[in-house]
Design brief:
Pectinesterase_cat; 3 helices; about 110 residues; single chain
């Protein structure tokens, strides 16, 4: 996800009884990268929710957790590998579908 705002719906704002996470890894080699986005404080600071039966954590690519496979993107070249232009070659096909996108960093 790139250039997004992740915030609660009005009915969840201020509801401290609801725990919210960015997601959880479903399969081996799952990968999620959030670039240049705003993440509201309603997301649990851990960020990701671990499956109880999850194995192969070293094959994952997640941030904001302290599991094997967790990464902080601090190198611009590493970040660029996840932009639309490089990760899914968006310039080649997204315009034909009329899908708005930002090919590089905002």
């Amino acid at each position: 996800m790139h250039n997004c705002s992740i915030s609660p719906t009005p009915e969840l704002q201020g509801n401290s009884n609801v725990k919210s996470y960015l997601g959880r890894p479903w399969k081996k080699f799952s990968r999620t990268v959030i670039l240049q986005s705003y993440i509201d404080a309603f997301i649990d600071p851990e960020g990701w929710l671990k499956f109880n039966s999850m194995s192969d954590l070293a094959s994952l690519y997640y941030a904001r957790v302290n599991w094997p496979g967790y990464h902080i993107l601090s190198n611009l070249d590493e970040v660029k590998s996840f932009i639309v232009e490089n990760f899914i070659r968006g310039r080649d096909w997204l315009p034909k579908l009329g899908i708005p996108f930002i090919p590089g960093l905002a």
